[in-house]
Specification:
Layout lengths: L1 E5 L3 H13 L4 E5 L2 H10 L4 E5 L7 H8 L7 E6 L4 H9 L4 E4 L4 H26 L17 H14 L5 E4 L6 H11 L7 E5 L8 H6 L16 H4 L4 E5 L6 H13 L1 E2 L8 E2 L3 E6 L3 H7 L4 H7 L2 E4 L9 H17 L5 E2 L1 H8 L6 H15 L4 E2 L1 H4 L8 H4 L8 H11 L4 H8 L3 H12 L2 H7 L3
Parallel strand pairs: 1-2, 1-3, 3-4, 4-5, 6-11, 6-12, 7-8, 8-11, 13-14
Antiparallel strand pairs: 9-10
Helix pairs in contact: 2-3, 4-11, 5-6, 6-7, 13-15, 19-20
Length: about 450
């Protein structure tokens, strides 16, 4: 184990170094400034970095932010005299493994180092397995089409974490496949034969939350002519998937937290509680760390839901998967629409591979399906994709390519759907409300007013 200690106080450096040596860790380096630490960490593959938070010029968080992307398998443990929740949240968001408040108990520090080292070993093992041994997608996740080493590592990690039955949080942009991963976790977890109940939290009105989640007894309110099982009871013995958990109002988060902690609840109008055994998987495309800092999401609920965390990369960060996915969606769409199309021309595949996908996999699926619907040959050509310079309106064409300008991309989608808001939002992977806001903002710009006036 190779450890770097970063602290601007020599007394602290020497004290921690002696402790680690006494505990049998021989390779311990020290550094007394944030600037030097950034250089050392980028140059050397340390296993663990013990990082002081308060340092002059460059503090611990700045060191973490500047080095973690270059050393994703190095584990950082923050040591600080400041016991501050927002700072803790920010450190974890930036990739810190642990956050310990000085004076740190020696046994607690060594335990944290031991666990961080084990966690690093797990991540490296999964990464090496994916990249060198070319592992396949785990069987439970076979709905996910990928050969991307990063995705394969994530799916292997998900399989390991699934066995515990603990809550798991999945984050990532809209359309990256969060529900597919959740279903895979359910299938490889301790109760694969139990129910899988998927709930879009953002679609439930606040006034209906308790009734929908906890159910109600007959006569609990006007119109309750029969008892109703809520989502938790429906998911008993299985998995409850809470999509868009970040949209849950703060007032209702405490009620959800209580059920997660007590594993029981009272249906509306009921005199006796119901006990359930439910594995909760939550998902969000929002930055929940930021939401915790802003006070719109409870930190205690966040940590309760995040026993393990899986972040799915956007499609543009796994470009090698685009041809695989395109061929998969082509086969699926041909079967659905009873058409016989053998593949893509090289030019069409090049266009698909070089395009931006703000709607991620979902958008790619829609693009391919639209191409299948309009194709009049046995191969998908560029003009079937609606993505050649000739098919762009002159106004959009003179601005830039789709990849270079999100506004041009949005306008292009609107043009090719004849202004259909629902289809455009689906293609872009956003809600109709979000699309309306983007259109309203673009109409304030004179260069877009002409093209958007009648859309």
């Amino acid at each position: 184990m190779r450890i770097l200690i970063v602290d601007d106080e020599d007394v602290a450096l020497n004290s921690v170094k002696r402790l680690l040596k006494w505990r049998g860790i021989r390779s311990v380096d020290v550094c007394n400034s944030g600037k030097e630490a950034i250089i050392r960490i980028r140059e050397t593959d340390f296993d663990i970095v013990l990082l002081d938070l308060l340092m002059p010029e460059v503090d611990g968080l700045q060191v973490l932010e500047a080095t973690k992307p270059y050393r994703p398998h190095t584990e950082f443990i923050i040591l600080t005299a400041i016991d501050d929740i927002p700072t803790t949240v920010k450190a974890i968001r930036l990739g810190a493994y642990d956050y310990l408040v000085k004076p740190v108990d020696n046994d607690l520090l060594f335990l944290s180092i031991k666990r961080a080292y084990e966690h690093r070993g797990l991540l490296i093992g999964l990464s090496v397995s994916a990249q060198e041994n070319k592992i396949e997608v785990p069987e439970a996740f076979n709905e996910i089409i990928t050969q991307c080493p990063r995705m394969l590592s994530l799916l292997s990690y998900a399989q390991v974490m699934a066995a515990s039955g603990n809550p798991i949080m999945i984050t990532g942009e809209s359309g990256t496949g969060k529900e597919l991963v959740a279903r895979g976790i359910h299938r490889t977890g301790p109760a694969p034969k139990g129910p899988f109940i998927a709930v879009n939290v953002s679609a439930i009105p606040a006034t209906m939350f308790e009734s929908q989640f906890f159910g109600h007894a007959k006569g609990a309110f006007t119109g309750a002519d029969s008892p109703h099982q809520g989502y938790f009871e429906q998911a008993d013995g299985g998995t409850l998937f809470l999509d868009e958990i970040g949209e849950l109002p703060v007032a209702l988060q405490a009620k959800l937290l209580r059920v997660l902690e007590e594993k029981s609840f009272y249906p509306l109008g009921a005199a006796k509680p119901i006990w359930v055994e439910v594995r909760v998987i939550s998902a969000s495309n929002k930055d929940l760390n930021k939401a915790c800092q802003e006070g719109t999401f409870r930190l205690d609920l966040y940590y309760r839901l995040k026993s393990a965390h899986i972040h799915l990369p956007p499609l543009n960060e796994r470009p090698g998967d685009i041809p695989l996915l395109a061929r998969h969606f082509l086969k699926k769409s041909c079967a659905q629409h009873r058409k016989e199309i053998h593949g893509f021309t090289p030019e069409a595949m090049e266009l698909l591979s070089n395009r931006d996908y703000p709607g991620n996999v979902r958008e790619l699926s829609q693009v391919v399906e639209n191409a299948v619907l309009i194709a009049d040959t046995n191969f998908i050509a560029p003009h079937h994709l609606g993505m050649t310079q000739e098919t762009l309106s002159p106004f959009v064409r003179q601005l830039c390519t789709l990849k270079e300008n999100n506004e041009a991309h949005l306008a292009f989608v609107l043009i090719n759907t004849n202004g259909d808001r629902n289809r455009s939002a689906q293609t872009l992977g956003i809600t109709v409300r979000q699309l309306q806001r983007k259109i309203a903002a673009m109409k304030k710009n004179p260069r877009w007013e002409t093209i958007l006036r009648d859309i």
